[in-house]
Design brief:
Strand order of the largest sheet: 6-5-4-3-2-1-7
Number of strands: 9
Largest sheet: 7 strands, parallel
Radius of gyration: 20 Å
Number of domains: 1
Shape: globular
Distance between the termini: 25 Å
Order of helices and strands: HEHEHEEHHEHHEHHHEHEEH
CATH class: Alpha Beta
Number of helices: 12
Strand content: 5-15%
Bound molecules: iron/sulfur cluster
CATH topology: TIM Barrel
CATH superfamily: Aldolase class I
Helix content: 25-40%
């Protein structure tokens, strides 16, 4: 991201906008991954579930998403699901429009379907393929998007691999290195990211890492980042895993991202996980990345995080003042979509 993008984002925050937008563009997914937060009963707050929402298809989906983007003017859009490749025809229409608007776009998929080689022409597009560990564990969890199928479906393109480390694999000696060795050898892989599984408050189960496992993973990642340059995780980001934000109010990622579900009006809070995520056990790479930026010292004890939180408060107050005192023709009401106030 360029300096002009950062200044643009800051100006947007001061004006009450969020620089990042994440949209569940479909409620459909051919996979049934254990631990999937999108289909968890708590994801949308407990009153309804993703599969019960009415979602959109075809030109209507494209038009409605572009209306949101044109109103919110985000710098970055994540298209998630369900699996967004369920709507690949709509993506074919949407991606050129987002590129023409200068929006950085991320499509997060299981790669159960071919990723078109022609998408490489979009320089601001990052296709992220979710892979849960080495082949035996992954194929068990994510069939029909097996290793064999992924390798075939990414053959003609470049992707980022994102793997969520669960408690089942966290303390297996050499596991992450074997994963990196396998994927870094493939020319289709531009970057590799790891997150740690983030549970809901009070949840139990084998997916959840113990504190010893978290420490082990952090030490391993610090070692591996020097051996595998494709592992795109800075040292500061990895260290943040040991002290995640205390609450959604402290999480710069949650506060800079609007997350919207498949009916294009239900807001997912406090972050993409929905429900009541346990921030003390968060391992989301995006949250850790922005926490590391937030801890960067700008001048003396003043950090970028201090500046962000002050700017965010100004933005919220500014937006509230606009709603109270000023009619806002720049924010037209849409019958299909309404973001709830921050
Ligand atoms: S591919 Fe993603 S959305 Fe689909 S079940 Fe798996 S984790 Fe959930
Ligand atoms: S991304 Fe992590 S730290 Fe941020 S609100 Fe969600 S669970 Fe909490």
């Amino acid at each position: 991201m360029k300096t002009s993008d950062v200044l643009h984002a800051w100006a947007g925050i001061l004006a009450g906008h969020r620089p990042s937008l994440s949209i569940e563009i479909t409620k459909e997914c051919p996979l049934r991954c254990p631990g999937c937060y999108a289909f968890d009963a708590a994801h949308l707050g407990g009153e309804t579930e993703l599969r019960q929402l009415s979602d959109f298809k075809g030109a209507e989906l494209v038009k409605n998403i572009l209306a949101i983007v044109d109103r919110e003017k985000p710098l970055h859009v994540s298209l998630v699901g369900g699996d967004p490749l369920v709507r690949y025809r709509e993506l074919e229409m949407l991606l050129p429009e987002l590129d023409a608007r200068g929006v950085h776009t991320q499509v997060v998929t299981s790669a159960f379907r071919v990723i078109p080689a022609e998408w490489s022409r979009f320089t601001r597009l990052n296709v992220v393929v979710s892979i849960d560990g080495l082949q035996p564990e992954h194929d068990e969890r994510r069939k029909p998007a097996t290793y064999e199928r992924i390798l075939k479906n990414i053959a003609a393109t470049k992707v980022t691999i994102h793997s969520t480390i669960t408690g089942n694999i966290a303390s297996r000696e050499g596991y992450l290195e074997e994963f990196l060795r396998f994927w870094s050898a493939r020319p289709q892989i531009a970057k590799i990211w790891f997150s740690l599984f983030t549970p809901q408050v009070g949840a139990t189960g084998p997916e959840i890492l113990t504190s010893e496992q978290r420490s082990f993973v952090v030490q391993d990642l610090l070692r591996l980042r020097t051996l595998y340059p494709v592992l795109d995780m800075q040292e500061g980001l990895i260290q943040e895993i040991l002290s995640p934000p205390k609450s959604p109010e402290d999480c710069i990622f949650a506060k800079t991202t609007h997350t919207i579900s498949a009916d294009l009006k239900t807001k997912i809070t406090p972050c993409q996980f929905g429900g009541e995520p346990d921030c003390s056990q968060c391992g989301c790479i995006a949250s850790m990345g922005l926490a590391a930026v937030g801890h960067h010292r700008v001048a003396g004890p003043l950090t970028a995080g201090h500046l962000f939180h002050v700017s965010d408060r100004i933005g919220i107050a500014w937006r509230a003042a606009k709603r109270t005192f000023i009619s806002t023709p720049a924010e037209p009401k849409s019958p299909e979509f309404k973001i709830l106030p921050s």
